[in-house]
Design a protein that fits this description.
Number of strands of chain B: 8
CATH architecture of one domain in chain A: Beta Barrel
Largest sheet of chain B: 7 strands, mixed
Shape of chain A: globular
CATH class of one domain in chain A: Mainly Beta
Structural class of chain A: mainly beta
Oligomer: heterodimer
Helix content of chain B: 25-40%
Shape of chain B: globular
CATH superfamily of chain B: Glutaredoxin
Mean pLDDT of chain B: 88
Mean pLDDT of chain A: 92
Helix content of chain A: under 10%
Chain lengths: 492, 151
């Protein structure tokens, strides 16, 4: 019997030779080191993530296997963390297993993945892939006249590492449907979502409108609200749970303008399955990214205005104004003004300058001034250099108006397309991170080398400053690290 | 085992397939944007500093090679927080090639891309022939040479 089955499978795959395909990637990370001041200083850890995909015609099957080893065996694990079968054909997509997705603009649900990122939970000291997926079933259809999607799955609470039982990592059962109709360049949609966990069952609906008003102007609007017997469906009262998001965008020539408004009230759903647009500038500069305002979905309203202009000779200007209000026992008003200009200085120099002023009372930061520059120089033979400088001064009146400083200096060299080296020095007098010392320094070196088209190795040695970080709109906490880290990324 | 089963182990990433919304929220597919000979896919984001510098250079390459059977598409991995900025941002840079929105980085994951910017050059069969991560001054010369090499 077994030989016949093998023969059948062989013929099936042989016949599908030209269209069946196995691909994947592997991410290996080795660390020798620890949180500064923690024992042992030479903690050895190893993380590995293997992703395999097999495709046959319109069918794709995939798995993710994660492994973490630590001298502290309580945080070690080996786990098949994802499995998935997907069918796609002419606008139809059916997924069974682990999947990611979004309802509307994310006011009610956003499951995501940040490819290549590894997260470490401080309380567990365990590392794992950074994603928030659902495990269940998803069906989507996209057509010319409209679209529809339906999903049902257990949502991952990604604060828990895979060493926790899967049933405990997925406390929420999320069910949702969304449908939309396209007409004359506009789309109108409707969402219904129910989330159930051990303590509660929450139901929401959402109305969606988006489209182009002219060749220059487009808009997006979403109104989400809970469904409950006691609360009218459109109530904006204190006991209602709702979210309003709207944007208006304008483009003319090389001038662009984005205007956004938000009003979120009691929009923390389940274990935190939603991800509404934050309307806060997502900064690429280290100090600003670390200082980013984290929205409070219990109550937050505000606006964001961002403008772009490109001058004829390639100079780019960006201006951003953000205002966010949190109404708790009292009002906390966050404000930020940001400006950036990038230009070519001669044929081989590229310079970017930025300046930022913020007020963040919820973090007791009355005035925060940040500025800096990035200078890149193209040399001959594919070589280039980079110099980055950032400086920040923070005034906290509750601490006697004392001014704290942060600084980053990065010097880099690269030989494209294979090798790059950078040295980073960070300096701070902020008492939140100096641990009682008048100042603290972090020195680190990063080396990256593309061995070939399939393999890239990176090395970090030294001290890495942790703190809040945001990537692809998702904010999380990065831990300090002191030691050596080697990463190998492989595609196959 | 692969030989027994006649299974093709892909060169790097899975052959492309995507259906994403463009800047005007219309659906576009890989089939619609691919070139007759080569296809350039650039993964980028509005918050990515090197992407900002690479996009005008890629637009120049698009204007140079679009009549030679080379298709270009930029795939933005911006999440919901930056969706509103995408269209005015792209238009201010004068980008002429199509831009698609990969709001949950799903296509990025499926194509085994880890970082932005990452540029892929795919041949006529959709096989990946060149991958370039990051963008430093002068990288446009390397990309231009690679396009010419594979044309």
């Amino acid at each position: 019997m077994m030989p016949r089955i093998l023969l059948f499978i062989s013929l099936l795959f042989y016949g599908a030779n030209a269209i069946s395909q196995l691909s994947g990637n592997n991410h290996m990370e080795f660390q020798l080191g620890n949180l500064p001041g923690s024992d042992p200083r030479d903690l050895t850890t190893h993380y590995n993530q293997l992703n395999l995909q097999y495709r046959y015609r319109s069918l794709t099957a995939g798995i993710r296997y994660e492994h973490f080893y630590s001298q502290n065996t309580a945080s070690s694990y080996n786990r098949l963390t994802q499995y998935n079968v997907k069918y796609r054909n002419k606008g139809l997509e059916i997924e069974v297993g682990n999947f990611i997705g979004i309802l509307g603009n994310g006011l009610l649900l956003r499951a995501y993945e940040i490819p290549g990122s590894v997260f470490e939970a401080q309380s567990y000291r365990s590392r794992y892939g950074f994603y928030r997926d659902l495990r269940g079933v998803s069906v989507k259809y996209n057509g010319k006249v409209g679209y529809a999607k339906a999903l049902r799955g257990k949502t991952l609470a990604n604060v828990f590492p895979p060493l926790i039982e899967e049933s405990d990592r997925r406390p929420d059962l999320t069910e949702g449907i969304e449908t939309g109709l396209n007409f004359f360049g506009q789309t109108a949609g409707l969402v219904f979502m129910r989330n159930t966990n051990i303590t509660d069952q929450e139901q929401f609906y959402s109305l969606l409108f988006s489209g182009n008003l002219s060749a220059f102007v487009s808009y997006n609007f979403e109104f989400a609200h809970n469904i409950e017997n006691q609360t009218p469906l459109f109530a904006l009262s204190e006991d209602a749970r709702y979210g309003i998001y709207s944007s208006l965008n304008f483009s003319l020539g090389t001038f662009g303008l984005s205007l956004e408004y938000k009003d979120y009230h009691d929009l923390l759903i389940g274990s935190g399955i939603s991800d509404p647009p934050t309307l806060v500038k997502e900064h690429k500069y280290k100090l600003l990214n670390r200082s980013i305002h984290v929205p409070q979905y219990v109550d937050e309203s505000g606006t964001q205005v961002e403008a772009y202009y490109s001058f004829p000779r390639g100079t780019r200007l960006l201006l951003n104004y953000t205002r966010a209000v949190n109404e708790f026992a009292s009002s906390y008003v966050f404000r930020e003004f940001f400006a950036e200009i990038g230009f070519d200085a001669g044929s081989r120099n590229t310079v970017t300058l930025f300046a930022d002023y913020s007020e963040e009372p919820i973090r007791l930061e009355d005035h925060r001034y940040t500025g800096g520059m990035i200078w890149e120089l193209e040399l001959s033979g594919g070589h280039s250099t980079l110099l980055e400088f950032e400086y920040q001064a923070i005034e906290r009146s509750l601490l006697g108006g004392q001014v704290y400083q942060n600084m980053v200096v990065v010097a880099g060299w690269s030989k494209s397309p294979k090798t790059s080296v950078s040295l980073t020095w960070e300096y701070s007098t902020d008492i939140n991170v100096t641990g009682g010392d008048p100042q603290r320094n972090w020195f680190g070196v990063d080396v990256s080398h593309k061995i070939d088209q399939r393999n890239t190795v990176t090395l970090f040695a030294g001290q890495r400053r942790g703190g809040p970080a945001c990537t692809s709109g998702i904010c999380y906490e990065v831990l300090d690290f002191e030691g050596v880290e080697v990463r190998l990324k492989t595609r196959f | 085992m692969c030989l027994v089963f006649g299974l093709q182990v892909s060169a790097f990433a899975q052959q492309p397939w995507f259906e994403l919304r463009n800047l005007d929220m219309e659906w576009i597919t890989y089939e619609e944007v691919k070139g007759e000979t080569l296809t350039i896919i650039d993964f980028w984001a509005t918050w990515c500093q090197p992407c900002l510098r690479s996009i005008p250079e890629l637009n120049d390459l698009y204007l140079e090679f679009r009549d030679q059977g080379v298709g270009f598409v930029g795939i933005s991995i911006d999440g919901p927080r930056n969706q509103s900025k995408l269209k005015p941002f792209v238009n201010s840079l004068g980008v002429e090639y199509p831009i698609a929105r990969d709001i949950n980085s799903e296509v990025m994951s499926e194509m085994n891309v880890y970082a932005v910017p990452t540029l892929l050059i795919l041949d006529q069969q959709g096989e990946l022939v060149f991958i370039h991560e990051g963008f430093r001054p002068g990288d446009d010369h390397i990309i231009r040479e690679k396009i010419k090499e594979y044309l």
